Amino acid sequence: EISRTSCISLFTPLVLAPVEAVKLTVTRAMLINSFTVQSPNVTYTDTHIESKYTYANTELRSEDRSDGSPIWTIYPVESTFQFKTDRRIPKLGIMLVGLGGNNGTTLVGGVIANREGITWKTKEGIRAPDYYGSLTQSSTCRVGTVNGQEIFTPFKALLPMVDPDHIVFDGWDISGMNLADAMERSKVFEWDLQRQLAPHLRKISPRPGIFDPSFIAANQGSRADNFIKGTKKQQMHRIRADIRDFKEKSQVDKVVVLWTANTERYSEIIVGLNDCEGNLRASIDADDAEVAPSTLYALACVDEGVPFINGSPQNTFVPGLINAAVRLKTLIGGDDFKSGQTKMKSALVDFLVSAGIKPTSIVSYNHLGNNDGLNLSAPSCFRSKEISKSNVVDDIVNSNRLLYQNGEHPDHSVVIKYVPYVGDSKRAMDEYTSEIFMGGKNTIVMHNTCEDSLLAAPLILDMCLVAELSTRIEIKGPDDEHFRGLHPVATLLSYMAKAPLVPKGTPVVNALSKQRAMLENFLRACIGLAPENNMLLEYK
Fold first, then answer.
1. Does 336 participate in catalysis according to the annotation?
2. Rounded-to-integer distance, Cα 367 and Cα 499, Å
3. Long-range pairs for 45-50: beta carbons < 8 A, 24 or more residues apart
4. Is 343 considered catalytic here?
5. pLDDT tens, 508-525?
6. What pTM was computed for the model?
7. What is the pLDDT of residues 245-272, one digit of tens each?
8. Active site residue 498
């Protein structure tokens, strides 16, 4: 019997079993760092975790009354899914498009600082490295209770995930500056940390990237000293060769590529240009000017069988690209990191609407001074960002037609301004005006100083780790004869994305709590655990 009066951590494996079989007396929540699930529906082998999962859902049917109005009936239904997860954790390589930018240098530097245990001096004292802001590294999940006390486990302990310490980084940038100098240029880290990271980062220089001035702001031309020449087809072949070269030289088992470069303008979706895979490939062969650099990177990854994630808001995934990914069964995901203002919005609006409060006006203003802000000062690039930020409340509004009539939507305005002085410390100011009881109005005003790259870097890590994990999970549903991989359009990345990319016909969910619950509950199903529903029926 173990007795504690504060949070304790069990570092030896714990078997999740009926409460009666475990004798623990605690007065605070516990953290268990590893466990196994003991169930007839779960099997552990040296190479895989296999689970059988009963999925409870509902089916709705309607019949018309004599007056034409419908009578609805809800039928609870159950179906059986099987999951098979490869336990063998690969050596992972991450290639970033925009490696020398603020996000790239911040992520690589942060991972090195954690791996090497680098501490640094600030005016507040000595700071140690951490992964705050990372879902996989710094959040927990509830796995049960013991004697009325809740038991939690790290999110990364649900299934075998890559340890960031073992990641190898590479990538491309249109600026050839080594990462030590690029880190100094970005002005994100404290100086003492930069000083200690510089010897590590000076060894890393980006590979030449694809530069097309027609897709980004003209003010980016001064940075472009490291780019691939030739036709679009030649550029795409060079990206494929770079991926193979990195994999061979670094001896990694798997590669994930993520776009964290400049926001591009939207590409025109044109029949005959990019509306199907054949037309997209023909357009690349013809060196058509409307094929964006990000689409070239994405298609190169699809052809190499390497997951590609879009961390910016442009429409990289034109229909032809999606067709190719589905045909070749290569994971793609995005779009646009959900890190600061939009993350708050997807949580707050969901809370208000769920509480029966009616948001009627949402006004969001930002100013920032990093290179992202400079690029977004071009109207065509800002339009891409405006679209991804504006759609974040759509599904939340549609969920409550008691508040909103068909076609009704809150006024929603997004403004972004470039102010060089504030650098990476983006200021986000929001005003939410809502209608409340009996004609009243409620206004919430929020000021949020977002350290832009320090919020984005952990999301990049999470997206890459979850994408890699997704490639090791197989599923067998009621209509499947054999196990198959997950759908190439990776909905598991939705929690980290402003504008989640989903397969055709799949509901788009933007509400933050629902996105996190979906990801956590999916991983729970892979180890035979029921979804976390917070009912606590055993105490009712």
1. yes
2. 21
3. 45/87, 46/87, 47/86, 47/87, 47/88, 48/84, 48/85, 48/86, 48/87, 49/83, 49/84, 49/85, 49/87, 49/159, 49/526, 49/527, 50/82, 50/83, 50/84, 50/85
4. no
5. 999 999 999 999 999 999
6. 0.91
7. 999 999 999 999 999 998 899 999 999 9
8. yes
